[in-house]
Amino acid sequence: MIRRSLITHALRSAGAAFALPLWAAPDPQALLAASDAIRNPNQAFRVTVTITEFERGQQVDASTLVSYARIIESSGQYASLVRFVQPARDTGKLMLKAGNDMWFFDPGTKASVRISPQQRLLGQASNGDVVTVNFARDYKATLTGEESIQDGERKTRRSLKLSLNASSEDATYASIELWLDANSHAPIKARFFADSARLLKTAYYRRFELQLGAQRPTETVIIDGLNPQAVTLVRFSDYVARSIPASWFQRDFLPRFQPE
Q1: How far apart are CA 128 and CA 106, in angstroms?
Q2: Is the pLDDT reported for residue 12 higher than 80?
């Protein structure tokens, strides 16, 4: 009787185990890559970037850029060439990001100088925020949970929270907290941190529009980590797929670049 009871219990336990749903937690690195694919087209493209700086709700500065980007096959990361359009004092200046190097070129002096992705370009927007970047190539992602948060339009969204730690010298930030829509994996919100773990800024991705085959965020609202009254709005418009020569992404080419 005891042996029969043990056998019966074992069979029931086995049946219960097989009845459990075969569910596995999503791969955080795959989630991050899916979010990258929503933020950035997977083909060479041009986009207009408008940066507007606000202090206490009042506009204090603005700049318009045109960014050209293509993926480097060897690394899977983007190379970007950014042309300054407005204001007039900056017209014709260029910024180049290729591999580990980032350069600023002034046509007035014909000089190109090395710059850092962390340096501020305008307001809370840094050089690294303007160039196109695949986070999955520069950061190691960990899934830390599921949360309900408010998005950039103050709507409650069910999200997956990722913790990103820099795994590449190219990374602009030491670490990032990133919230993705639980269904579409579109980016909703991000918090960016320095090496000291100090919060540098918070960003909200919003105004999704169909651009080059996908619903992409066309605005990023960036809020200073210390002063919430300092806000920078980055708008992306006029996406165009185009062939971009590899020569554009070489430092020696900068003096010869001619705008379209």
Answers
A1: 18
A2: no
Helix (H) or strand (E) holding 7: helix 2-19
What phi and psi values does residue 134 have, to the nearest 5 degrees? -95, 110
Helices then strands, counting H and E runs in the chain, come out as 4, 15
Q: Which residue has the higher pLDDT, 171 or 50?
A: 50
Of 69, 45, 83, 40, residue with least CA distance to 240: 45
Report domain extents, the chain: 28-256
CA distance 200 to 230: 12
Sorted by sequence, the CB contacts under 8 Å of residue 227 that are 6+ apart come out as none
pTM for the whole structure: 0.87
Distance CA(85)–CA(91), nearest Å, equals: 5
> Contact 14/39 with Cβ under 8 angstroms?
no
- When the pLDDT of each residue in the chain is averaged and rounded to a whole number, the result is 90
Confidence of residue 70 (pLDDT cuts 50, 70, 90): very high
- The tally of CA atoms less than 13 A away on the side-chain side of residue 17 is 6
Structure tokens at 141: 């992602």
Q: Note the pLDDT of residue 35.
A: 98
Rounded to whole angstroms, how far apart are CA atoms 82 and 85? 10
Residue 18: which pLDDT band, with cuts at 50, 70 and 90? very low
CATH of 28-256, one of 2.40.128.100, 2.50.20.10, 3.40.50.300, 3.40.50.1820: 2.50.20.10
